[in-house]
């Protein structure tokens, strides 16, 4: 039983998609596709880490730091995914947040 507790691991995926720009007319072009930013939090016995909103904000800021927007550019097709991993039963866990988006430029 102790060996099972010390070697157990599981993962849970979840996510959402948010629309950040109206792409209903043909007045834009794609500049970059599938850019991403990542953030991670660690918990011990459920304590520690960052709030979900903070993880999303950190991941988005990393994404924009690596892919700065220029004039007339915005994010589109924004997705937010979470992966929760549990180790040693529920003693140690991590939450990884990945934000992906496309960059579009309006004419």
From TrEMBL:
Pfam families (UniProt xref): DUF6567
Lineage summary: Bacteria, Pseudomonadati, Bacteroidota, Flavobacteriia, Flavobacteriales
Name of the featured protein: Uncharacterized protein
InterPro entries assigned to the protein according to its UniProt record, in alphabetical order: DUF6567
């Amino acid at each position: 039983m102790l060996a099972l507790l010390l070697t157990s691991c599981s993962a849970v995926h979840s996510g959402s998609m948010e629309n950040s720009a109206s792409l209903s007319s043909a007045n834009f072009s794609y500049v970059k596709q599938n850019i991403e930013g990542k953030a991670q939090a660690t918990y011990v016995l459920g304590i520690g880490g960052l709030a979900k909103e903070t993880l999303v904000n950190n991941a988005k800021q990393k994404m924009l730091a690596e892919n700065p927007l220029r004039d007339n550019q915005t994010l589109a097709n924004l997705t937010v995914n979470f992966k929760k991993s549990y180790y040693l039963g529920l003693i140690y866990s991590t939450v990884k947040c990945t934000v992906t988006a496309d960059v579009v430029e309006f004419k």
